[in-house]
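pasting DUF629 domain-containing protein for the record, 520 residues
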Amino acid sequence: MAPDLDDVLLLRAEAEAALRLHREDRRDEALSRAMDLAVTHNSSPLALILSGDLNMIAYCQNRRSDAALAGRQAKFAAACYKMSLDVVPGCVETFAAYGEALTALGMYRTAWDAFTRAAAIAHPADPAAHRLGYGRSSGSTKGERVEMAKAKLRRAIDCYANARCEDAVAEVLGAVEHVGAASAVHGPAKLADRFPSSARAQCLPAYVCLELSRGATPAATAKTLRRALAMLDNAAGSFDRSLMVALFRAKLLACLHDYDAAEVECRRALAVDNPDDPAAHDIPLGSVIGEEYDDRVSCLREQFIDVQKKLVLLAAEDWESMNCEKQGEILSVSIDKLHEHYSKIDQIAESTISDALRFSRRHESWRFWICARSSGHCAGKKFLDTASLLDHLCNKHPDELWENLESFLDPKLCENASQDGCSFDEACSEMQDLWLKFTKLSVFDYREAIMPLARMYQWKELKKCIAEDGSIAAWSVDAIFAEVSHAGEENVSAEHGSLDKNGHESGENQVTNKSDNLKT
Ligand SMILES: [Zn+2]
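structre below
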């Protein structure tokens, strides 16, 4: 009954050809080939999963423009995944994908069952066995692939938690747009209470606050923004993998002139591994660009980098406008001040600075040399000049002296020096060069360690200056959020078209409780 090996290889080659077409942006051809393969090989997980995946990508692309077509594609994908799971029931990733397709169809209970079954798999199957796009290029191990599958499952559950309140969010956003933010104040808060496991629902009240602040007086705006920030601080605590929450928060911090905190948030977000799918958290709905998960994540990462760049530009502008006296204040930092600053926030930096301080006060110098044999009794020994280093090497390691030099430096030079054809003078000058290079490698200058710390401190001070300096036109809400709200407007109205078709209200609360259990 086992399938012929040639047939298996042939099928894999055909599936790979379809995937190649997809990557060459010949999407329709790829999709119809993959669907043909799935129909003719309906017991092959490889063919079924490829067809499921390409259908789901098409679904994401079409869901806001052609809900009926997207619905058929999600349905086909779900059927493919289900048939594939009959053959390989131990694949976490296929369960995750199946749950996602069911979520797209609004079949939340069945989706939840799929996620629970996936989470309970004791010995997950290797996804590379029946999925394309694994192995050869990534060079990963089975363990790493299973971890990736588990990360996808976590993302699928997050998408599910957010999809369940998407219609309700669209309704609130519609009210904000048509009736105004002021009349929609209570709706968002209620929604956030009802869907605690949705990052999008938690962001909604802050978003409405932001809308309220537009056109208000500066004082009123600041007050409203601070309220929105407090809401986002809460959301950021529960959803630390959400790039949307982080971006919203970083921008709000920038609006409130806390440039340092804004930058810290950007850096944190850029370092998040396996972030949640931004498309699951975006407000306005559909405002994140990118057809596939990786595209959407890169799109968000670019936005964080943009915020960082804008911050630098703002700082440069502020720097230009400062008088020399103020610039001098920032440029010259006393080491005592640095020490005081780092003693509060960074222990390693603090001890580097205090070592340097002690050394420079005792020896009136920042530089010292170390013995190349940094173990044993030589460890930690500091020589104040090269003469005492040479003395030490001659006395303590006479045999190793030449070897040390050789091992540090170019062995070819040493060979030349010992060759017969070389004159004594040449050998001497080469030895001198060697010694010079050697001392350069053994020197340590405390200032090199302190300089980066000083730069970071100065940058922090400069950011503080920009925040305090009233003369600089700082970021306004409109300047920072304009792009996002613009992109969203069309999408919100597109969302209304699909709103009436799938109002899935029944059994909501039961699922909420379960999903909360799984998340924590
Ligand atoms: Zn030594």
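The domain at 166-321+475-503 is CATH 1.25.40 (Serine Threonine Protein Phosphatase 5, Tetratricopeptide repeat).
Residues 371, 373, 378, 392, 396-397 surround zinc ion (CB under 6 Å).
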